[in-house]
Design a protein that fits this description.
It is a single chain. The protein is built from 24 helices and no strands. The chain is mostly helical. The radius of gyration is 24 Å and the shape is globular. Helix 4 packs parallel to helix 6 and helix 20 runs antiparallel to helix 21.
């Protein structure tokens, strides 16, 4: 436009930014923030029973087996929820599944705090477990599919960190409430943020990927423009459509046949060893473990686990920072190896008989390093390996099978750990966990590949080639699903 034409006509007001440009960054971050809040609530509800169990066991006169059931019934519900979570998120939407999760958290957490007896508590915790199982599947999908590509990795990692932060929070809350034995408040406090997170969830749309899944392409384009202004929304929706077409047709039966039977054996074994080595024995029963270790007084029994979980949070963040520098295999084996050593130390500590003085603090340090090592190795890598091992059409199926193995092992630990402690003693119990951790170390050292810097097709070529790297990378570009698909959910 010439200078004359500008002076001859009134100045044209600047074009206001489009609604998508104004709202894209806040909307994308609100998706991530909402998912992180749900992660904190999930972590809190998983760990809150650790302190509450000390006091409700006395009020309800629970045996060791009944204590185990209070924990394991939640895990059993999680298995049911995880099995239906994917279908629910596909049928009703990621947003609807998240609304169900948040509302269920609020209702069932409040009901567990008001339970008049252990039967009602078990029923309510089973229902809460179903909500947790759905969230394990739906929340990472919701975050990964709705945040811009430039912050997707950080957003999913933030969800995992938020889950660990929720576990940390529950121990400090338990410590603060332990003086009065307020177990109902320990269980019920998370109902408040669960109810509050419904407000932003109701305002947010569903994810572009789900709209494409349901054939609502124009709505997918609108939401893509809202969440990521740096891409062409129609091109991105086309990529998502291609990815969904590529992901169809996977089945559990396909995992049992060549060329992916070896990969299935690896991820299922990793999922089982992740939990059977005893991490949730510490999460669920740490006050009892510290009391057995010789720490007396509710201040020590409840405050010390808080520092253990803080170390876990730091280890999780550290793993995120170094995993692409040191490599997956190195991080995994270092984590499991440290777990083996710390379980050997705990076996020796409990084997000396009466614990006092320096021995008790050695035991505390061993618990702290065991938990941190788990989060550094298993906790940070299990879902990375699950998402890398299979082609797009088997990725979600493989992750679901791994999650099932993980939850079954978690169920065994939750149910039988207190009974084993009472029957076999702490030294033999931790020695048994040490043997299982050593088996996990051998398993991982034999089966886990180093996939740092490898393209997804190249990694899948490793499994197709019988567990050895092909001479040349698998042909073809990285699939659209590898670039835009949602990663598998994190471990509970």
């Amino acid at each position: 436009m010439s200078i004359a034409s500008v002076s001859a006509t009134p100045p044209t007001p600047p074009t206001p930014p489009t609604p998508s440009a104004r709202t894209a960054r806040p909307t994308g971050r609100l998706f991530a923030l909402t998912g992180a809040v749900v992660g904190v609530i999930y972590g809190y509800d998983t760990g809150s029973i650790s302190g509450a169990l000390v006091f409700l066991s006395k009020d309800f006169h629970l045996s060791e087996a009944e204590k185990g059931l209070v924990n394991s019934i939640l895990v059993f519900g999680s298995i049911v929820g995880a099995l239906i979570g994917g279908k629910l998120a596909d049928a009703l939407g990621r947003k609807a599944a998240m609304l169900i999760v948040a509302a269920s958290y609020a209702v069932f957490v409040a009901c567990s705090a008001l339970a008049p007896n252990v039967l009602v508590l078990d029923i309510v915790r089973f229902l809460l477990g179903i909500a947790i199982g759905i969230s394990i599947v739906a929340a990472p999908l919701y975050v990964a599919e709705s945040t811009p590509a430039r912050i997707r990795g950080a957003s999913v990692a933030a969800y995992q960190v938020a889950t660990v932060a929720g576990i940390v929070l529950t121990y400090f809350v338990n410590w603060g409430l332990s003086g009065g034995g307020h177990w109902r408040w320990m269980l019920g406090l998370s109902a408040i943020p669960a109810a509050l997170v419904l407000i932003p969830l109701l305002r947010l749309p569903d994810t572009p990927r789900w709209y494409v899944l349901k054939g609502r392409t124009e709505r997918a384009v609108e939401v893509m423009a809202m969440t990521d202004p740096d891409v062409d929304p129609r091109t991105e929706v086309a990529v998502v459509s291609a990815a969904l077409a590529e992901e169809s047709g996977g089945s559990v039966r396909s995992l049992l046949r060549k060329p992916y039977a070896r990969a299935a054996f690896f991820v299922v074994g990793l999922g089982f060893f992740c939990q059977i080595t005893g991490i949730n024995a510490v999460t669920y029963y740490s006050p009892q473990i510290f009391e057995e270790m010789g720490f007396t007084g509710e201040g020590q029994s409840f405050l010390l686990p808080s520092f253990v979980q803080l170390a876990s949070l730091a280890a999780t963040v550290l793993a995120i920072l170094v995993i692409d520098r040191l490599g997956r295999r190195v991080v995994l084996l270092c984590g499991i190896g440290t777990m083996v050593l710390m379980l050997a130390v705990l076996t020796a500590v409990f084997g000396v008989g009466t614990l006092q003085g320096t021995t008790t603090w050695v035991g505390f340090a061993a618990i702290l390093l065991f938990t941190a090592a788990f989060n550094f190795g298993f906790g940070s890598l299990i879902w990375v390996y699950a998402s890398e091992a299979f082609p797009a059409q088997l990725r979600s199926t493989g992750a679901s099978v791994m999650l099932t193995a993980d939850l079954v092992a978690n169920l065994l630990i939750a149910q039988f750990f207190p009974s084993l402690m009472a029957w076999a003693g702490a030294a033999r119990t931790f020695a048994g966990l040490g043997v299982l951790a050593l088996a996990a170390l051998v398993f991982a050292s034999v089966t886990a590949p180093e996939t740092k810097g490898r393209q997804l097709e190249e990694i899948q070529g490793y499994w197709r080639n019988g567990g050895s790297w092909p001479q040349t990378p698998a042909p073809g570009p990285v699939s659209a699903s590898a670039l835009g698909g949602a990663p598998a959910p994190p471990s509970p």
